[in-house]
Every structure is written in C-alpha cells, then in structure tokens.
C-alpha cells in the first residue's frame, strides 16, 4: 500500500515541479521585459518634454520679426511628438498585458498546487 501511495505522490511532485519550473523560467523574462518597458517609457517621457521645449522655442522664433521659415520644423516636431505618444500608448498596453499574463500564470500555478494538495491521499492509519 505504501508503494501505491508513493506512485501517486511522485507524479504530483513532478507536475508541481514543472509548474514551478514554468513560473520560474517565465518570471525573470517577464521582469526583464517590464524593466525595459519602464526604462523606455521614462526615456519617452523625457523625449516628449524635450520635444515640447523645442516646439515652444520654435513657436517663439516663428513669432519674431525675423524671416525664419521654421513652420516645417514645427510640423515635424509635432509629428514626432504624436509618434512618441503613440508608442508610449503601445508600451503601456504591452506592460498591462504582461502584468495580466504574470497574474494569470501565478493564478494557474496556485490552482495546480491547490488541486495537487487536495488530490493527495491522506496517510492510511496503521493497525
């Protein structure tokens, strides 16, 4: 009877270990992606601020009496700002998806661990 208990416990340990292995292998990857997303978003925010400053400066130059033709540059800067904002929105979306994926993986592992613990046979009383 001890052999059958060990036989049923061994596959449970294997599936528990494989679930842990999956989570352990995905965790650093997801964390690395999240770190890269945060760094990219920070750089994009700084770039957006610099673009805004440059745009304001060019608007001031445009309002001066000097005959500078900078309207095309202002348009290009505004287009760049729009693109940076679009990429920022995409990065936010990807970050949200990664966070949801990480939560789903954690929930799935928790459910598997819970079901494995529930299916384990209690030790048989010895007579």
TrEMBL record:
* Record keyword Coiled coil present: yes
Q: What do the Gene Ontology cellular component annotations say?
A: BLOC-1 complex; BORC complex; synaptic vesicle
A single Gene Ontology MF term assigned here is: SNARE binding
Output the Pfam families linked to this UniProt entry.
Snapin_Pallidin (PF14712)
Keywords, in A-Z order:
Coiled coil
Q: Is Coiled coil among the key words of this record?
A: yes
User: Example GO biological process term?
Assistant: endosome to lysosome transport
Task: Tell me which family the UniProt entry assigns to this protein.
Answer: Belongs to the SNAPIN family.
Name of the protein = Biogenesis of lysosome-related organelles complex 1 subunit 7
Task: Recite the lineage of the species.
Answer: Eukaryota, Metazoa, Ecdysozoa, Nematoda, Chromadorea
Q: Which gene encodes it?
A: Acey_s0004.g2053
């Amino acid at each position: 009877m001890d052999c059958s208990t060990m036989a049923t416990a061994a596959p449970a340990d294997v599936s528990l270990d494989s679930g842990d292995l999956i989570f352990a292998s995905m965790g650093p990857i997801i964390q690395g992606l999240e770190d890269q997303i945060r760094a990219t978003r920070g750089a994009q925010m700084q770039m957006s601020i610099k673009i805004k400053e440059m745009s304001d400066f060019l608007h001031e130059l445009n309002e001066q009496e000097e005959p500078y033709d900078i309207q095309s540059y202002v348009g290009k800067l505004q287009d760049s700002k729009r693109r940076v904002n679009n990429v920022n929105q995409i990065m936010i979306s990807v970050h949200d998806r990664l966070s949801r994926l990480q939560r789903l993986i954690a929930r799935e592992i928790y459910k598997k661990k819970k079901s494995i613990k529930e299916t384990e046979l209690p030790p048989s009383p010895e007579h």
